[in-house]
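Objective 1.3, modelling of assemblies. Example input:
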Amino acid sequence: MSFGNVLLSAEPAKFFLGPIGILSIVMWLPLVGGLILAFFIDKRKTDLIRQFTTAWMGLSFLVSLPLALMWKGDVAGLQFIESYAWIPSIGAKYQVGVDGMALSLVLLTTLFGPIVALCSWSYIEKRCKEYYVLLLVMQSFMVAVFSSVDLFMFYVVFEVMLVPMYLLIGIWGGERRLYAAIKFFLFTLVGSVMMLLAMVQFYFTAPGVAVNHQKEVRQAAQVIAGNNAEMLRLIEDGLETARLAAIPRDADVIGADEAPLGTFNIFSLQAIGSARGAGNTPLIPLSLQLWLFAGFAIALAIKVPMFPFHTWLPDAHVEAPTAGSAILAGILLKIGTYGFLRFNFPMFPDAAQDPRVVKIFGTLAIIGIIYGSMVALAQKDMKKVIAYSSVAHMGTLMLSMFAFNPNGINGAVLQMLSHGVTSGALFIMIGVLYERRHTREISEYGGVVERMPAFATLFAIATMASVGLPLLNGFVGEFVGLRGVFEANIGWAFLATTGIILGAAYMLWLYQRVFLGPVTAKNAGLEDLKPREWAYLLPLVALMIILGVYPKPLVKLINGSTETIVRQMRPGYFAPAETKGEKVAETSVPAPGVKK
Amino acid sequence: MMISEMWTPVLALLQQEPSGSFGQRLVQSFSQASTTSFLFLSAILFTVGVYGVLTRRNMIVIFMSVELMLSAANLNFITFSRYWQTQGNEYAYNGQIMTIFVIVVAAAEAALGLALLLTLYRNRETVSADEITLLKW
Amino acid sequence: MKLIALIPFFPLIGFVFNGVFAKRLGLSEKVIGGIACLMVAASFFCSVAAVYEFSHYAHDPKVIAEAKARQAELKAKAEGAQKTGMKAEAKPESHAAKSGGHDAKDKSAGEHAGGHEAVATPYTVTLFEWIPGGMLNYTLGNNAGRGGADFSVKWAYQLDQLSGLYIVFITFVAFFIHLFAIGYMHGDKSFPRFFAYLNLFMFMMLNLVLGANFLMTFVGWEGVGLASYLLIGYYLKKPEAGQASKKAFVMNRIGDFGLMLAMMAIMAVFGTLDYSEVMGMVQAYPQEAFGWASISFATGTLTVIALLIFLGAAGKSAQIPLYTWLPDAMAGPTPVSALIHAATMVTAGVYLVARCNPIFQRSPTAMFTVAIIGLATAFVAATIGITQTDIKKALAYSTVSQLGFMFLGCGVGAFVAGVFHVVTHAFFKAQLFLGSGSVIHGGSPSGHQQEMAYYGNFRKYMPITFATMMLSLLAICGIIPFAGFFSKDEILAKAMHTPVFGHETGLILYAVGLLTAGITAFYMTRLMCLTFFGKERFLEGPDFQEGHGHHDDDHHAPASKDFHPHESPLVMTLPLMVLGAFALLAGFAGVSEELTGGAFPNYVHHWLAPVVDSTFYPEKTVTAVNTTEWILSIVSVVWALAMMGVAFFLYAVKPELPGKLAATLKPLYTLSFRKWFWDEILDVYVVGALKKLNLGAWGVDFLVDSVVNFFAWLARASSVLLRTAQTGLMQNYVLVMTLGVFLLVVGMGYTFFKEIWTNSPAKTVPAAPATSRR
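Predicted structure (tokens):
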């Protein structure tokens, strides 16, 4: 690990208005809007509410753009860091910052804001004000999830976010909305309780490691921070807190009696978790790592959702209002996969690469791909088709991640974004049809293209993006990710690639049944897109094409995060070809499934 | 602390040579009584109160029993206040303050509780604790 | 030569313009069609210019020297780390496993370093980096275990002899098909959409052939699939069109599955997808063993890659077992069938195999598979073609059959012959399709009649169509000197003398190929006879019946009986004539030198030689006329003429005979008519099984939900039990509370007294209350 000291030190981008950084503004602006809406706008003025929310979301999006514009491409790790004390006694802090991966997800979230607000204009008829307040609140929490650097803060936001979503489904949902809402809530809650347990255990384990293996941990911290001086300070700060926490309270050390119980800084914890002792042994014993991994993994796998935990998803999607489905598919599912890359992989690298774990997750992911596609073929409800296709896509995504190489993880992050855009768009488009016909039964439709040619074109593009046609966004992530899988395990790659056949089958089947064929009498009166609908569909479709034709900026953005993760997990991977001895090669070459 | 000691004030009243009025003798005997006797009396009062709360059906009686328990607590406070006074503790008055505080609260509580009872009676035509079981699944 | 970067984008402009603006601006059909044609024409002229320039570039000694140096460098890079010990073991093995009689091969493998004259000199234009994907490790091949490669795919175009040939004939044929379509699609409601799709197709097709790396080709590959999907389903209201388009796309996807995996494997072996680098590096690999054993990454990396590529090619080029989509694809408009499903897109598979010939040549297993699949497809499709009654379907099966011939050519090592057949086939098959389009257009009042049962004696009404189609007929039947003769005959001749397999295998391949060629001549003549000769049957068509089941809402009344088939306008017949002329002439570009003894140069062969790897199967220079070749040619021409005669006799002279013949040969007839039952097998066993599996799979959800619901039930059940404790009687609560307090007091008291009893009494004195907190 020689790269730690050869890199020059650099300061990340930052922008402050007084004490408040731009990231905080992006994060809490929607919440402020929600409060304004809640307290200052009469609930009977529904048009004003709609316009206000949309404008406010648009404003939040515009405010988030400087994040991308001010981004320093040559600085690794977190940028726009802010750090304030929050709960000193336990060491929880208000710490925010985004790395490339998080930034891309934050931008996706802020982009979705105005779109979901706009697509609900005519869909939501009852309790308009409450709905939009919840949308705004939700928006804040989603941004916060991706940008919190403090595990405690992450957990709080992760949990709190359930409430608005629960209400969105439970109040504005379809026929079986309560069932779906409660199912969604309980599934996620069960998972997050597991995560809480693991989190607390890790929180209490970490200080001991930090104090006993200072050198190794510092080295790991340098790997994480790369050339980012401020991030290194942040991590060191967290590590210092952890060290103090490990010292007995009455010891004669300055600050020991007032020190918190430990640190919640995600990256400090990553440094502790990924630090290797002599002989490449993990500092945290594998058995404990496995438990901690399991705790986080269950929570996140439910959120993703991975194969056996996916059953909440179709129900939630079908019952949720259009905007709810779009947010769910576009953003919420990504939190699970983001969490894997943020917590599970770097914090417990040995557990993640344990052959048993890899085998379990690989198998589940592949089952998810094939099973999700198969079940999607048997659905009668349009939203369910897309919901099960999400299960399949998420299977590919998880499999790509568990390749543990830059291609796989880059591909996974690209898939996160492209699946967010595509399936979000598909749900919104189904909403467009639903607003006209008030049904989502596939058999009710047919020949829609005759009446709505423009809409059919946009839907076709989204379909093709979902199928993974080159030059559209879906393909890039899929191919890069599957190539990573191929490097890790050829058998997996073969099985996972069958997904592209099945994916084409169910999406085209859906398209054919809904759009092609003779026009039925029921569909004769359909109107094509209105300007408002153009306004929110066009950006999504444009994004699909842009990300498909020129994904390079995006890949450059996320590649840094990806390489850091791989460095943390497989220190030998980036060694130059010549110096790469047999020993290192042995850890990086064979498939994770058969390693060791 | 012998159990017999609690009878001391009573015995003193009976056994002493009569000097002064009965009232004077009463005060005298109480002032001589040991702390333990007062605590014992308080315990009896409290137990009577608990018994009343548990066994009586009439809410008013239950209410009175609660008052009895409060009195027992007050007696405890006063007793310890006196005890600490003899020990020379400068904060001994705390107990008396507490007693007065409890009396005030008890008065308020009595007013509120009786008012509740009245309303209850108006609505349900009964003050029997057995018949008021709304607090149930 | 930088022009090549522009070539694909002309049609893209046409696509965007026609797709987005044409309808809104209310342009006339002529303008729309004109723009579409203009864009293709622009591409054509750019292609010609670029190829002309390239022909000089390729002969520049400096360029050749550079290319050679680069090849050596790439080869060295691919020799790998000091792991050659393992490879060295594999080498003799692979030779030992080969069937006998190939000693010459070993020699050539040894001397190839000294080198063949022709070296590929691809000219590449990189526009931008398309997909960067981070670092990667080599996991297969010589470099396995090394790191340091970079996943980086560029948006780049490459011009070499192969892509140059392709772009020229593609844009040329496409231009005339576009022109034809202006007439054919006249009056169609969504005229601009049609031309937008056609231009989209052209964009993708040019990407396919010009792409400088596998992924760029894959872009075009999937893109033409998309265009094909859109154009097959062009008649949106026709349910079978939607069905067919979906089928085409999904079946192609099965092929793409193979191609995608092949690309991943190529990346794992070579660390790049660029053709020039991969084809250079592959030189470092020996030929792999023949047999089942090499179908594994451990023993035969290149074999697996080649087979996966061929799976992709089989999907796109409609080979067994993925051929059923092509006949169904005839649901699209006829120009589409001509352009996509005959001349260009379906030959992309052959293009890819030819492009990857260095990989294929290193795997006799894959070559054998290609040859056998190609031949089997050619034979099966030809037999099905005999009994088809729909003119377009008959042509479709003929296309499948001809594609099989092309693969046979590639499989026996005659990549040049395969590609040459692609070119000639593009001319005569496009002509045949357009001719059939002309027939369909003018043969019935609705302009949609495709059943040959309602044709007959059209030569009277459509003389130009008839005459030009006759040229193509002679070409496809392989009559000297028409184009098909030279290309098909070369394939058959090469099959017989194949250097890849033993002589006996070659003889069998030749015999079956010859038989198939005869069948081809038979059913193509049958098609012509049914259409242009015999009794006039067009008045029996459903258009003249009351309440016929046509889909178009406009034509419900029976057409009047004084209808006469008519010749198509010039905009349609001109392409017929031009393509017909090329069906006659194109063959002279590739006259086998064995026939002429080198007197007349084989242009195609010389042009393509640099892209064909000659390491294992070096070309012999021909100096004298080969009499065997002449005998073979005469045999095949006579055989084809005989079969044509039989067909003419059966269908034009004695039209009642075929029915009787079919009755006598019932089993064979059924086999052919039902298309060897392959569609049914797919439907029942694959699609049916999948459907059942889907429903079964859904049960898993039920199971998972049941587990979850069980816990919900558990919570509810326990609450039913526990809530009985909540009596509502205040005194109960108080009692419980009192008991609790009592227990607490007793417990505390117990511990308290225990301490008193066990410790000295001094400790029991209570401390003074804390008074110090101030």
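Chains A and B do not touch (no CB pair under 8 Å).
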